[in-house]
Amino acid sequence: MDTTMHRGLLSALIAASILIFGSAIADETCMSPYMAKIVGQEDFVYVWTLGVEGVGDEQDKLVTVDVRPDSDTYGEVVHSLSVGGRNEAHHSGLTDDRRYLWASGLDTSAIMIFDVHTDPAKPSLSRRIDDFVEKSGGVVGPHTNYALPGRMLLTGLSNSADHGGRTALVEYTNAGDYITTHWMPTDDNLNGAVKGGNFADGYGYDVRALPRRNVFITSSFTGWNNYMMNLGAVMADAEAMQRFGNTVVVWDLHTRKPRKILDVPGAPLEIRCAWGARSNFCFTTTALTSKIWLIYEDESGDWQAKAVADIGDASLIPLPVDISITADDQQLWVNTWNDGLTRLFDISDPEAPVQIMEQKIGAQINMVSQSWDGERVYYTSSLLANWDKVEAPEGEDLQYFKAYNWKDGELEHQFTIDFLAAKLGTPHQMRFGAYSLYGK
Amino acid sequence: MRWCLAVLLLALPTIATPEQQPHHKGADRPQVLAPGYSALKFPAPAARSYSLPSLGKAADGVLLDSSGTPATLHALYEDKTIVLSFIYTSCPDVNGCPLATFVLSQVQQRLSSQGNLADKVRLVSVSFDPVNDSPDVMADYGNSFRRHNVDWRFLTTASEKSLAPVLDNYDQAVIRDIGPDGESIGTMSHILRVFLIDQNKNIRNIYSPSFLHPDILLADILTVTADDVPIDQ
Questions:
Q1: To 10 degrees, what angle do helices B97-111 and B214-224 make?
Q2: Spatial distance between the Cα atoms of A320 and A80, rounded to a whole number of angstroms
Q3: Which residue intervals of chain B are DSSP H helices?
Q4: Are strands B31-32 and B15-16 parallel, antiparallel or unpaired?
């Protein structure tokens, strides 16, 4: 029995000590294994939202959506906290105790730390970090905000020297005090890593840990020069297209030293690791080559990477973006931004994923978050301010938050919030909140 | 909105070793024991081959030792390397407080054969349940684990009011579990954290159940302790 629930309706907390070794894990499926989890009905979805010129107050903001089915305000925005200015709001992540939500900006490198435990329905800004570049020694574009015990590990996308893709990982205490910086290994400085293929580009993007194997895995994207440029201009610029990451790095989790650099060409983005006690592998997808890659530990204990499936027709540039693994390591949601499709892959054989369904969600699609039990799936639309589409055919939403129930192999639409019509901005990453996490 | 009791931390599902679990399956996975209870599944880090940068100063606080005498954390820390564990004695989660005490007992056993290092290390277990864990209870609890020639202290606080600033300073969230009638059911929800504090009162690592293991803790103790202590893991 994993849960004890009082009054039968509310979300349940699973503590990290159980979580890491326990049964079901679900984006709840995709967050840090060190973090307390909501295993029942989530109460709120926090949406880190880009401010847009000419839309509302034009500022980045944390938007709180009520997703309690029995609530009078179900499906509505119940709180919005603007942070002053635009930062290219992108990803966010909760601390291990889930009391604070870190949300960062790729352009300004600003980091907001929101208190989500004092009043889960009304997050407040607890601290703002504006010296990330200076403190980190020149890292630009804090991306993934990943919980480690008592601290946060942030991936960078770029650097202040040339605004290219060479970057680092940066550690902070949960309170927001800088600890240290770990630069990605490059040909110039492998820092003890084994170069497993042709590349050692030093690029960064996402990070996920497999504590039971004492490793964490990082992926690679592109630098500030590219992600702040118009997408059409990037794709028309052959030189710019050369400046995308081609690597995944396997690190020693405890010593924070890079162990091996794997060739994964085509900008490997999100990383999702399996949860089974002997499932020593993770998935990533490549944006430019539209493939699912398996990052795995072989029988000799060495780490390898291989492409295991195509995602749509790569020649049409579907552009896979966010992915989400299910509780039982059996399925993987894969969104493709350009065609607005969410796709579900059967990954019961991790070496041979098979797409088993697809559904159009909007004119474009980026993030996906699913509940612990996999019964609710949420989507948002924004990728990057300068990459997002600006127009779509009638009826195809451009900037939305959409809620679905996943039942009997079908996505059942529950509600949509049009973020432009609501004068909020463009919605990006989602994280869940629940009163029960804090004994409320 | 009032309490939704969700005490997964305290629920103890079926225990199984990782080897008993099906490959690539998850839905029916039984609960497994934390790595700290068995041999480490990967090579332990080589002491002093890596760095553990400071996470900031370890805060002071007023507690009661197991004889009921007031004691401050900083006085307790002296110039020792400290392993600090927050627990409560009736904690039923095998991967929570009992894990912390088990791992510290294993570290104690290793230290007992390394007198030079043992002299520089102090183990500290602090209860976050002052209502039930009186100094006498902590003394009895400690006597069950403490062995000769290794310094392991068991402390509590005079009240929840005096405990609160200590927990706050160490970012240790604790929720007393409440039953349907609104009364405490005697258990607490918390995230297990164990702290490694160096001889200058800097926090150098924070452990969760996933890597709280005697081999790792000993390597870290050696890494942060004055390097006149020979490495003999």
A1: 60
A2: 29
A3: 73-77, 97-111, 115-118, 135-143, 160-169, 214-224
A4: parallel
Inter-chain touch A149–B206, beta carbons under 8 Å: yes
Query: For chain B, which residues score pLDDT lower than 50?
Result: 1-28
Confidence band (pLDDT; 50, 70, 90) for A206? very high
CB B227 within 8 A of CB B119: no
What is the separation of C-alpha B76 from the centre of its chain, rounded to a whole number of angstroms? 16
Check if the interface score ipTM surpasses 0.85: yes
CA atoms of B217 and B83, how far apart (whole Å): 9
Three-state SS at A253: coil
Q: Is the whole model's pTM more than 0.90, yes or no?
A: yes
Continuous segment of H or E residues that includes residue A134: helix A132-136
Question: Over the Cα atoms of chain A, what is R_g?
Answer: 20
Tell me the chain A residues in contact with residue B209 when contact means C-beta distances shorter than 8 Å. 16-17, 20-21
Query: Using an 8 Å Cβ cutoff, are A346 and A297 in contact?
Result: no
A394 CB-near residues (< 8 Å, 6+ apart): none
A376: left (phi over 0), alpha (psi -120 to 50) or beta: beta
Residue B14, token pair as written in the block: 């079926």
Distance CA A25, CA B27 (A): 9
Query: How far is the first Cα of chain A from the last one, in angstroms, to the nearest whole number?
Result: 22
Mean pLDDT on A311-337: 95
Q: What is the pLDDT of residues B143-188, one digit of tens each?
A: 999 987 899 999 999 999 999 999 999 999 888 888 888 888 888 8
Residue A27: what pLDDT? 58
Closest Cα partner for B96 from A17, A97, A1, A96? A17
Helices (DSSP H) in A176-256: which residue ranges?
224-227, 231-236, 238-241
CA nearest neighbour of B7 among A96, A18, A373: A18
Rounded to whole angstroms, how far apart are CA atoms A254 and A209?
11
Collapsed DSSP state (helix, strand, coil) of residue A247: strand
Mean pLDDT over residues A432-438, rounded?
92
Chain A positions in Cβ-Cβ contact with residue B4 (cut-off 8 Å): 5-7, 9-12, 434-436, 440
Residue type, A144: T
pLDDT of residue A164: 98
User: Cα separation of A146 and A207, whole Å?
Assistant: 7
Q: CA dihedral in degrees (A431, A436, A439, B3; nearest 10)?
A: 150
Structure tokens at A438: 């804090």
Q: Which B positions 24-83 lie with beta carbon below 8 A of chain A?
A: 24-35, 41-42, 45, 49-50, 53-56
| Distance of alpha carbon A233 from alpha carbon A212, whole angstroms | 43
- Residue A66 CA to residue A145 CA, distance in Å, equals 23
